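ingest -> validate -> predict -> emit
validate: passed (alphabet ok, no gaps, 181 aa)
predict: started
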Amino acid sequence: MTACLIGPGAGVTEATRACTLGILATRRATVLDADALTAFEHDPQALFTAIHGPCVMTPHEGEFRRIFDATGDKLTRARRAAVTGNAIIVLKGSDTVIAAPDGRAIIDANAPPTLATAGSGDVLSGMVLGLLAQGMDPFLAAAAAVWLHGAAAAEFGPGLIADDLPDLLPVVLRRLLGSKP
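emit:
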């Protein structure tokens, strides 16, 4: 096992908290999303102090507010959260901010409105996981996944559901590499 993802559909339970802490204890590259973040709503410090390896958190605004300081503009909040959480933060939205504890940040405005659909964030977390599992740097993996996620959604257009996104990745990657479809 080279990388782990926990959160989507896990449930906001004590078992999710325990599993999240167990995964973080392995020090493997980890993606934390959805319920894995919300499960620490009442004690975010317990989550932050457990992070000792590469970690990417992928919250939307609601999940972000549950565990981080939500004052200030989006870029400032994401950068501050990256330091607080000792993790790469992917603060999702039409202008997704990817921030690292060392101060690096990217604002990706590549997300079309069609991505505002159930499960699309879960697909993004899986994309980050896949890149981490291949040994990619966490900040670059998060940035690449966010861009590819948006490009895949733009490729599909209106009517997108989350299940459509994985099938579009080869199309986007071939186009980037200059290959024929």
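Residues 3-177 form a domain with the UDP-N-acetylmuramoyl-L-alanine:D-glutamate ligase fold (CATH 3.40.1190.20).
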